[in-house]
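can u do me a favor
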């Protein structure tokens, strides 16, 4: 069994894999991993990996040190089964790298765009030869709603749930539609632009926020909420065989 830990800006995801099979996923605080004893008691874990986009707390480091099996802390120096062409690999988010690894592993021999819609929205491109070219970062959905409220005097903070007409006829629907449709148009724009050079492009959509695509692009989009976890598991297995 493998222990996979993905610590994001908002939450931590802890998963158990039996080789390539995802067995269980738990979401919790990204400042402590209080559920670790439960997982260690419940499963016979041989090895683990952790990736974090935030600085690990002393609490988490002590919890990891107490584990009775080796745990890889993913960094830009960790061997991965793709070629990383990012010019500043030490600044690359490990969640982005893991998602790229997973996409390349799940769809080998294909040009792939990974869209991760979480706290931020990231766009990462891997070509059919397994070369990771990098990508872009933009504000996530909740960040956009919050920014409209914080940086204006009168605009309210709006929930993403509710009506989303093409043209808002109240301030609430104008904000909700502007944010949600704006993100959908942004994503579709990236896809169409890449398809000009890579007509057989495949797209993975992952992350904590769900978006609908009312376009003709549905056939090339694969939704996988656990793409980063699968990538981390792939990296762990890859390092175990080196």
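np, heres the sequence
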């Amino acid at each position: 069994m493998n222990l996979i830990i993905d610590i994001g800006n908002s939450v931590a995801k802890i998963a158990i894999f039996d080789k390539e099979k995802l067995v269980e996923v738990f979401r919790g605080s990204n400042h402590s991993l209080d559920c670790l004893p439960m997982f260690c008691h419940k499963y016979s874990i041989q090895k683990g990996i952790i990736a974090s986009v935030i600085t690990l707390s002393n609490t988490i480091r002590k919890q990891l040190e107490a584990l009775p099996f080796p745990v890889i802390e993913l960094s830009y120096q960790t061997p991965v089964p793709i070629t990383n062409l990012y010019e500043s690999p030490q600044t690359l988010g490990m969640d982005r790298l893991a998602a790229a690894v997973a996409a390349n592993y799940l769809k080998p021999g294909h040009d792939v765009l990974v869209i991760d819609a979480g706290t931020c929205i990231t766009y990462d491109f891997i070509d059919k030869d397994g070369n990771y070219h990098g990508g872009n970062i933009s504000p996530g959905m909740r960040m956009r709603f919050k920014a409209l409220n914080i940086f204006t005097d009168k605009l309210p903070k709006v929930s993403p749930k509710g009506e989303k007409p093409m043209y808002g006829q109240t301030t609430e629907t104008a904000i909700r539609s502007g944010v949600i449709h704006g993100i959908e148009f942004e994503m579709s724009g990236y896809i169409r632009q890449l398809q000009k050079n890579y007509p057989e492009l495949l797209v993975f959509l992952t992350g904590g926020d769900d978006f609908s695509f009312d376009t003709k692009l549905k056939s090339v989009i694969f939704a996988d909420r656990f793409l980063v976890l699968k990538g981390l598991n792939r990296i762990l297995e890859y390092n175990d065989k080196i």
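The chain is about 35% helix and 25% strand. hope that helps!!
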